[in-house]
């Protein structure tokens, strides 16, 4: 959904985000929704400025989100408050799951298929009865070995079995009811600490504001993702929204509040190790990916829109390798590196410490401050031979050798650190052409307005010239390992004294073109898998549909009486569509669910889908189209005209996920990997599939460890933008948040003898830091399972550089990973807290 | 020097294959460290002939340390063979 679509919501639940402070531009649409009468709810451990502008603040203990959301699911089902017409038509609520499926409620806290030896799941028992369901290709592959794609053909034989009466014991509805039976308001209070009456206010508000006439939205940020169950928290919200009919409709959806620094864009054209641009999977050496044919066969779902994946993959290869991509050489497929394992940031930090890598480029990131277990990161940086840091100001990552914690406490001397560090100053946004892709998939072009000073250069300039020089170095190589570098197209026009590459040329390549005449491809439906088209990212196709027409430059908003989709403002992928799956805004027959919430509908007169947004459907597929199963339909032919969720293999919202998740088909409450309480719901304490990469220097606290009794969470500050350095080096913002602090409740401060603005020491097995206390009622003690649990919180954006300084919160955190994404846990760990100061600055009593 | 570190890496890998630990264990980390030292020694002493083989071994052991799916035991045994060829 678009940020401005928040105005159309009748209820907005902000959870896992302090949106008012961390996404203030987007938050204005929340304020507008409230002005129009929407109920605003903030579910968060702290009372923040977001809470202050909400109608309801529901406090929950960090890391208990699934218990809270599971309670909502329970409430909706048991009180029959779900949007039945929508959910029956557009979700898998009536699908029947394999008889071998066992739920954690009857299986000692884990789902069927769990292998305790490997800590992973086999997903056979999670499948639709008689089917093997492919996951959407953009998702992470589960621990199962390849089946060559053949089993997925079962999806072309018949529709998944359903029980429209919802009485079958293994239909999703009944499984959901059993799974969440114990997530009562009382249990929610016991686990989360949120009073049951407050919880019920939230559940009632959501139910009251959903249905044909009304819609609600969830907004979340890293307060949901940075957990060992981060993906499952989002899943829980998607179940709520599926049940309430809040997907694909005006004012309905789940708004992932991405980072300001084009984080959405860096996922689309990814900096992620396991994806090719626009969500194509990176080939894997352990899968049947030795050839392009094998890769496409195993990764292309036979049904739904992703059946088009070969067109996108071949066009991408053609864009990258140009004339060197031919049918005879699999379009250059063998140039792509094949994954061997998890190469995400956390494992690579471990690998850096172990000496695997000899050099690193750090661009747009400051891992000494922003990555967990800061001392561990520093230690890894000392093992490098070379380090390139590009940033707009000196960062801790570039100056660790001189001012780092290891040096400060005498563990290392600068002269003993062999890492050769190259610091490159960067151009800021106004000093370069380019795009920013915001949280609503909105790609907005910006022009350079002034020249960057001194040696500062754009990231594009750096990457282009680095690539150019590398190509020159390898030009005469005959080694096969250098073939990719030689084959790479790298022909962007340069201009000016600085030889700046043309950013629009890159955008044109991403948009795609026909190879024969280099004319832009107008839409992704025109891409081919025969080498006649090239496209750097199929979802961005249409952003530059004609020569000289950069749609991302568009700045024409709808007027006050316009439709409000603002199709003339920039470009939203794909196809300039603002709301994904918007066919769901119409009922199965193609009519809007209500006049008030209409968006896209079937026009009988025009024999096509139409509306105020770009329809997310095959334009001419009638709502009453049904697959002819006798013909083993593939692609979109296998989805009925009443199946809006076209990226899924059967076109339905997956309330229950048969494939694609590594930690279960349903969200289940597990305690965070560090918790002051034992899991009140299961004997299994924490997510059994999460990654705990424990080793000396990265040791986790045991559950209920009395040495570390407090819940600790981290967050950002409005005044210190992004990772902090931009605000810390600017005097006018630095003085607004002059130094690091920890927020402590008056009750805990009283217990520990901590004075407001007095010094405190925070300790974990990873390290110790000292900061001043902010004693405030913004944080409150919780009563969890009958006893008081205190929580403290601290901004993670401080370091030793700039004017606003302070100890680094991430010193306290361990390197761990969510099973699906390997993302770290920053929102719920345990610490000790005391009044006083450290004996030695930068010293530590626990960490190595 | 290179020979000694190579033998240490091989011994560490043999321990992994004998014990078949879960992926996050120290054994993998120790093996990676040994292999990295061995690789660096090959580079520093100009013995680049075997570098590609050792890098391949590192990749496979990393796959065992940080697997995306099941632990690739079969490939780890193969990698052991490659390493043994280089060291012995």
Can you give me a brief rundown of this structure?
With 848 residues, chain A is an alpha/beta fold. Chain A contains 24 helices and 31 strands.
Structure description:
The complex is a heterodimer of chains A (848) and B (88). By secondary structure, chain A is an alpha/beta fold. Chain A has a domain at 691-835: Barwin-like endoglucanases. Chain A contains 24 helices and 31 strands. Chain A has a 6-stranded mixed beta sheet with strand order 24-26-25-31-23-29. Chain B is mainly α and 88 residues long. Chain B has 4 helices and no strands. Chain B has helices spanning 2-19, 26-44, 51-65, 73-87. In chain B, α1 packs antiparallel against α2 (26-44), α1 (2-19) runs antiparallel to α4 (73-87) and α2 (26-44) runs antiparallel to α3 (51-65). Chain B is globular and about 35 Å long. The two termini of chain B are 14 Å apart. In chain B, 44% of the residues are buried.
Protein traits:
heterodimer, A: Barwin-like endoglucanases, 6-stranded mixed beta sheet, 5-stranded parallel beta sheet, 14% strand, B: 88 residues, Four Helix Bundle (Hemerythrin (Met), subunit A)
Low-confidence parts of chain B lasting 5 or more residues at pLDDT below 50?
A: none
Amount of beta strand of chain B: under 5%
Give the class of chain A from helix and strand content and strand pairing: alpha/beta
How many helices of chain A? The count is 24
The largest pleated sheet of chain A is described as: 6 strands, mixed
* Alpha-beta content class of chain B: mainly alpha
What's the total count of β strands of chain A? Answer: 31
Placed side by side, the strands forming the largest sheet of chain A appear as: 24-26-25-31-23-29
Domain unit count of chain B: 1
Q: Characterize the main sheet of chain B.
A: none
Share in helix of chain A: 10-25%
Rg calc of chain B: 12 Å
Given this structure, which CATH class of the domain at 691-835 in chain A is correct? Mainly Beta
Number of helices of chain B: 4
* CATH class placement of chain B: Mainly Alpha
Unreliably modeled segments of chain A: 844-848
Instruction: Please name the two chains that share the biggest interface, counting residues whose Cβ lies under 8 Å from a Cβ on the partner chain.
Output: A-B, 32 and 27 residues
Order of helices and strands of chain B: HHHH
What is the CATH-assigned architecture of the domain at 691-835 in chain A?
A: Beta Barrel
Per the CATH scheme, the topology name of the domain at 691-835 in chain A is Barwin-like endoglucanases
Oligomeric status? heterodimer
